[in-house]
TrEMBL record:
Family recorded in the similarity comment: Belongs to the trans-sulfuration enzymes family.
Key words of the record: Pyridoxal phosphate, Transferase
GO molecular function: transferase activity
InterPro entries attached to this UniProt entry: Cys/Met-Metab_PyrdxlP-dep_enz, PyrdxlP-dep_Trfase, PyrdxlP-dep_Trfase_major, PyrdxlP-dep_Trfase_small
Species the sequence originates in: Agrococcus citreus
Protein name: PLP-dependent transferase
A Pfam family the protein falls into: Cys_Met_Meta_PP
Highest taxon above the source species: Bacteria
Requisite cofactors: pyridoxal 5'-phosphate
């Protein structure tokens, strides 16, 4: 069966492997080298590494484009934002990852470009902000409000307006959403999260189906030096191999947890996008949310998501979080533990708070 016809669950396991020849390793080894012997495809490690190549082949196959890996998710974001021409405008989901917004605001303060924040769930409002824009930055679901964007419609509208469309696909992963197939120009990942999946790696990725864009992104990486370490690339690829089974379990846990939390004491709202592993609870105020975070024993208070362990945090504890996020919102990253233990711990904390 050709690679094009394989299911994504198979691609996750099969892509980025060394050739199937006698004596070859099953996995691409970690290549620790700063320089390579002249005359081959690689000469200096800032421009390439065999371990990156294997990871990029796998992520690219999953998203349906060419992948360029980076030292972090923010390094990937920065490379894509670097495509915006001087004097341009960026239309961005108002509840995007706070450091994406901070990077854009920094560029706006420096006079590089204009930033237009929109409610990404309101497609009409997004389209109204498009005239003259160079880029549309979407998250779906958004972080941490969990709003959903009509990616296909907005990507088409961006293209008609002459703007690049970018989708941060960190929350969904290519197993649940493939933005390039929906018409987006660029996909960004914090591979630190679901792709790597074990809370032990920091790494980013950019995927695009346009060869010229890929080359510009790759050039940015080489010039700015935002390269992943070979060990980080190896660990990310190893984590990726189990994404389908991790995601299946964590998603099932998230949907069941959302159901059990609907009538829990003190819960004003349960935000469930209907897919993925992230939920949000809105409690009455910051004090109530902080009490829940302090009382859990299995859930871990920490600021990340997409790992095998379940994490939670009150997002407005960060001064840079959007003021339109409720003070009592707790973001839940649901892991693969037994659902009854997760529910018992959280419901007990809610009752005690």
């Amino acid at each position: 069966m050709s690679d094009m016809r394989r299911r994504l669950e198979t691609v996750i396991v099969a892509a980025g492997r060394p050739p199937h020849v006698p004596g070859a390793p099953l996995n691409e080894p970690v290549t620790f080298a700063s320089s390579f012997v002249a005359g081959g495809e690689l000469e200096y490690a800032r421009y390439g590494n065999p371990t990156w190549t294997a990871l990029e082949a796998a992520i690219g196959a999953l998203e349906g484009g060419a992948c360029v890996s980076f030292a972090s998710g923010m390094a990937a974001v920065s490379a894509v934002v670097g495509l915006v021409p001087a004097g341009g405008a960026v239309v961005v989901a108002r509840h995007s990852y706070q450091h994406t917004l901070a990077l854009l605001d920094d560029g706006a303060r420096a006079g590089r470009f204009e930033v237009r924040r929109v409610d990404v769930a309101d497609a009409d409002a997004v389209e109204a902000a498009l005239p003259g824009a160079a880029m549309v930055w979407l998250e779906s679901p958004t972080n941490p409000a969990l709003e959903i964007a009509d990616i296909e419609r907005l990507a088409a509208s961006a293209r008609a307006a002459g703007a690049l469309s970018v989708v941060d696909n960190t929350f969904a992963s290519p197993l649940l959403q493939r933005p390039l197939e929906l018409g987006a120009d660029i996909v960004v990942h914090s591979a630190t999260k679901l792709i790597a999946g074990h809370s032990d790696v920091v790494l980013g990725a950019v995927v695009t189906g346009d060869a010229a864009l890929t080359e510009r992104i790759r050039s940015h990486r080489g010039l700015h030096g935002a390269i992943p370490g070979p060990m980080e690339a190896f660990l990310t690829l190893r984590g990726l191999r189990t994404l389908s089974v991790r995601l299946e379990r964590a998603e099932a846990n998230a949907r069941e947890l959302a159901r059990r939390l609907q009538d829990a004491p003190g819960v004003v709202e349960v935000r469930d996008p209907g897919f993925g592993t992230v939920l949000a609870l809105v409690l009455e105020d910051a004090a109530a949310a902080d009490r829940v975070v302090e009382r859990v024993r299995l859930w871990i208070p920490a600021t990340s998501l997409g790992g095998v362990e379940s994490l939670l945090e009150r997002r407005r504890r960060w001064a840079t979080e959007a003021p339109t996020i409720p003070e009592g919102l707790i973001r839940l990253s649901v892991g693969i533990e037994h659902i009854d233990d997760l529910a018992d711990d959280l419901l007990g904390a809610l009752a005690g708070a």
